[in-house]
Write a structure and sequence with these properties.
- By secondary structure, this protein is of the alpha/beta class.
- Helices cover 32% and strands 26% of the residues.
- It contains ten helices and 20 strands.
- The protein has helices at residues 18-29, 67-76, 89-102, 105-132, 151-166, 176-182, 205-218, 261-265, 329-341, 386-401; strands at residues 9-14, 34-38, 53-54, 82-84, 139-140, 144-148, 172-174, 192-196, 200-202, 222-225, 228-233, 238-242, 247-255, 275-284, 294-297, 302-307, 310-319, 351-359, 366-370, 373-380.
- Strands 4, 6, 7, 8, 14, 15, 16, 17 and 18 form a nine-stranded mixed sheet that branches. Strands 1, 2, 10, 11, 12, 13, 19 and 20 form an eight-stranded mixed sheet that branches. Strands 3-9-5 form a three-stranded antiparallel sheet.
- The longest helix is centred in the first third of the chain and has 28 residues, at 105-132.
- The radius of gyration is 21 Å and the shape is globular.
- Flavin-adenine dinucleotide is lined by residues 14-20, 37-40, 44-47, 50-53, 55, 227-228, 256-260, 279, 281, 314-315, 355-358, 380, 382-388.
């Protein structure tokens, strides 16, 4: 390894997405000295452009939502909600196999339990963190509305709602005038909707990340813009090798590098099946539609979110790895559908975006120690839920660093579970 920066750091975090930022805040609040490294800026990647949902009630793994049954139909449509880029299929096969295994009844039950426990921690942790950071006002508390085009689609969703009811999540199925009042201006094709009053969104996910980081810097956290090309562990700590050849020594290292994390974990002999579910959206000016709350079009794999900075329309899953160029026809396809579903939507002046969800095959994040060293911790793989679970992850990692028993069982999130 090349040149070395003089001092040994106490804690280094690789990744300034929402997960790395939340961990940095939690550790700084408890008096730790933290350095965050990112090759981009603060909250510039996937965490900047997501749909902004604090989806605390979203406890069902992706492999459960009847998705496997829908996949063949979706795959026929190259711009549909779920696509596999053909040139990536071979590389993806082992992950797809694990994804399929995660959908079996026993595995699903364990996942829902673990996700439920993490979400029960996530809500108070996120809201508490935002309160302490002085940004509690950035949470919108007007719930969500999931929409169905047929009785068949509603009926197919009922078992999932039943599982949520058992987990204590409140919701109400709406029809007719109640549905119309819940969101005026919807096309008549929607015969029913499910209103989840406890669902929350944020005013803008990137602004939340940046404001949380401001709070972290007030508590002493530091930032270095640099690329980590390798990591290594030793008895006394860990080393981060930067792309410019310099080394950073640290007592504890946390890898929170989103969809790229497994590349660093590989340096420590951890083979973690992390894939990316690439997602797309378009953000329109705020005036584009009078939106009362987040709308969820599950059958089409996208949501429409009222942000302070615009109306964001998007979602979809594209399995295509980290290197293939974006296909923004996907953003356009969702916008065209949104116009069909909300005829008054003004689709002009949109800004297109793609992000890389860091996804494990069982939809649970990876939170825990590296296989060969207690000086390296992993915090990644939050898939569709990184914003929602960021503060809870910060809390769990902080407890582990401080030698405290984590507030929920962390075995289901073990990096060695695969
Ligand atoms: C379309 C879409 C909609 C979504 N909607 C929601 C939602 O409504 N609610 C929700 O909770 N979640 C949502 N998500 C998921 C959420 O955005 C992600 O789970 C979350 O952003 C992941 O955060 P992260 O910090 O782990 O990763 P990232 O935000 O990707 O951050 C990782 C950082 O690590 C840096 N990095 C990586 N490798 C290196 C390296 N070697 N050296 C230096 N830096 C490195 C990257 O530059 C990046 O900044 C959505 C995702 C998408 C794509």
């Amino acid at each position: 390894m090349g040149g070395q920066r003089s001092d040994t750091r106490e804690i280094v975090i690789i990744g300034a997405g929402i997960v790395g930022i939340a961990i940095a805040v939690c550790l700084s609040e408890r008096g730790h000295k933290v350095l965050v490294i990112d090759r981009q800026g603060i909250c510039e990647g996937t965490s900047s452009g997501n749909a902004g949902a604090l989806a605390f009630s979203d406890i069902l793994p992706i492999a459960s939502k009847g998705i496997l049954a829908k996949v063949p139909g979706w795959l026929v449509d190259p711009l549909g909600p779920f696509t596999i880029r053909p040139s990536y299929l071979l590389k993806l096969t082992p992950w797809l196999y694990r994804f399929w295994r995660a959908s079996r009844a026993e595995a699903l039950k364990r996942t829902v339990q673990a996700q439920g426990a993490l979400m029960r921690l996530a809500e108070p942790e996120m809201l508490g963190l935002m309160e302490r950071a002085g940004i509690r006002g950035m949470v919108r508390e007007d719930g969500s509305l999931e929409l169905y085009e047929s009785e068949e689609e509603l009926n197919a969703a009922l078992p999932g709602w039943d599982a949520r009811r058992k987990a204590g999540i409140a919701f109400e199925h709406l029809r007719g005038e109640e549905l119309a009042a819940s969101q005026p201006g919807l096309a008549s094709r929607f015969i029913a909707g499910t209103f989840v009053p406890g669902w929350k969104t944020v005013s803008d996910p990137q602004q939340v990340g940046k404001r949380l980081w401001d709070y972290a810097t007030r508590l002493g956290a530091e930032f270095l813009q640099a690329e980590a090309s390798a990591v290594a562990a030793s008895e006394r700590g860990a080393t981060v090798q930067l792309a410019d050849g310099e080394n950073i020594e640290t007592a504890k290292l946390i890898v929170a590098a989103g969809a790229w994390s497994h590349l660093l974990a590989k340096c420590l002999d951890d083979a973690i099946p992390l894939e990316t579910e690439r997602g797309y959206n378009t953000t329109l000016p705020v005036e584009a539609f009078e939106l009362k709350r987040q709308l969820i079009f599950s059958g089409h794999g996208f949501v429409v979110t009222p942000l302070q900075t615009g109306i964001r329309i998007g979602g979809a899953v594209e399995l295509g790895g980290l290197d293939l160029p974006p296909n923004y026809k996907r953003s356009e396809a969702m916008l065209t559908k949104a116009k069909m579903f909300m005829p008054d939507l003004d689709t002009s002046d949109g800004r297109q975006w793609m992000g890389y969800r860091p996804s494990s095959p069982d939809s649970l994040p990876v939170i825990g120690y590296a296989r060969t060293s207690k000086n390296v911790l992993y915090a990644f793989g939050h898939g569709h839920l990184g914003l929602t679970q960021s503060a809870a992850t910060g809390r769990l990692i902080t407890d582990m660093i401080n030698g405290k028993n984590p507030s929920i069982p962390i075995e289901p999130f073990s990096p060695q579970r695969f």
